[in-house]
């Protein structure tokens, strides 16, 4: 998601790239929505945040239950946490980590949805600015951004505290690293290096710490928000310099070269970002193609069809952007 939106027509030819076998590829201008009556049946839950603008003090956390068709606001004034955002489910679906501000500082917290207890601050011992938390696939580790570097935390057996933190990068703000995401085996770590137009996706071998630049965008474009789905695939967002529009791309985890696939669920003329894998076929994401703000939609990776998520509950009438989605099928 960008801080500003430029809604210009984007050439589908410019974005064209080889598709994965059996899938639709390349964005679609004025991408239509599918009727709510054909929305896919899903068993899980989606957590996301909403705000008018980043860091405005008004961010809120929400949980949408697809089976029950209910929307619940999670954050509470009793938490003494402002701007909760970027939540991520534990692999078993029982806990959430998220970032938020407490006593003026950005920290990372863990919380059990529905618990009367306030979230636990996991980074009070680190101090400084802490962001972008993501569980490892086996649930034993946590990666975060801390003061411009990436840190790896080892969970205690109760899952409510981190017993140790290890710095993965150590150059501070000299080269800002952010948005870390481990692969299922923990062998690799995807992350973003740089800021603004210099943002590039990199992959680190966790054993050797060797880093490979994993994105070669067109001149002036930049890339961010890598999200690993499984052993073979990750998604990320590319912002094109000539239009300012965001597009979601798919790329093989083991292949640093070659063109990524621009997904057919993208609207060429608008912004599409914050990919959240639902299963092998479906991807939740945020788009401003259907309202004046970023709204939550689900796209089919096989054919590019897109549905608005819970249009009666999650709408743009409040003028708030809905971002940072994460889905779990477990409870």
Automatic annotation (TrEMBL):
Keywords: Signal. Residues 1-21 form the signal peptide. SUPFAM superfamilies: DPP6 N-terminal domain-like (SSF82171). The keyword Transmembrane helix does not apply. InterPro entries: 6-blade_b-propeller_TolB-like, WD40. Pfam families: PD40. Belongs to the TolB family. This is Uncharacterized protein.
């Amino acid at each position: 998601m960008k801080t500003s939106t430029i809604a210009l027509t984007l050439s589908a030819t410019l974005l064209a790239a080889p598709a994965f076998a059996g899938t639709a590829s390349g964005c679609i201008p004025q991408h239509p929505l599918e009727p709510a009556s054909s929305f896919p049946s899903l068993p899980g839950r989606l957590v996301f945040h909403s705000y008018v603008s980043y860091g405005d003090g008004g961010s809120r956390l929400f949980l949408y239950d697809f089976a029950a068709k209910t929307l619940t606001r999670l954050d509470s004034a009793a938490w003494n946490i402002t701007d909760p955002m970027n939540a991520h489910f534990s692999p078993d679906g029982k806990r959430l980590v998220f970032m938020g501000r407490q006593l003026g500082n950005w920290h990372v917290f863990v919380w059990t949805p529905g618990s009367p207890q306030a979230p636990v601050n996991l980074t009070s011992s680190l101090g400084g600015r802490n962001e972008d938390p993501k569980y490892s696939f086996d649930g034993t580790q946590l990666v975060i951004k801390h003061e411009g570097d990436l840190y790896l935390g080892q969970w205690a057996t109760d899952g409510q505290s981190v017993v140790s933190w290890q710095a993965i990068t150590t150059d501070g703000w000299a080269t800002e690293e952010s948005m870390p995401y481990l692969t299922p085996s923990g062998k690799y770590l995807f992350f973003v290096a740089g800021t603004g137009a210099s943002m590039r996706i990199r992959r680190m071998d966790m054993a050797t710490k060797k880093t490979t630049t994993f994105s070669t965008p067109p001149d002036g474009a930049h890339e961010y928000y890598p999200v690993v789905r499984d052993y073979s695939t990750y998604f990320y967002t590319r912002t094109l310099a000539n239009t300012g529009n965001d597009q979601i791309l798919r790329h093989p985890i083991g292949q640093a070269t070659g063109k990524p696939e621009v997904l057919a669920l993208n609207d060429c003329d608008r912004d599409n970002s914050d990919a959240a894998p639902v299963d092998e076929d479906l991807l939740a994401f945020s788009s401003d193609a259907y309202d004046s703000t970023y709204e939550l939609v689900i796209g089919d990776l096989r054919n590019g069809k897109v549905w608005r998520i819970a249009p009666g509950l999650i709408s743009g009438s409040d003028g708030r952007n809905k971002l940072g989605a994460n889905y779990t099928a477990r409870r």
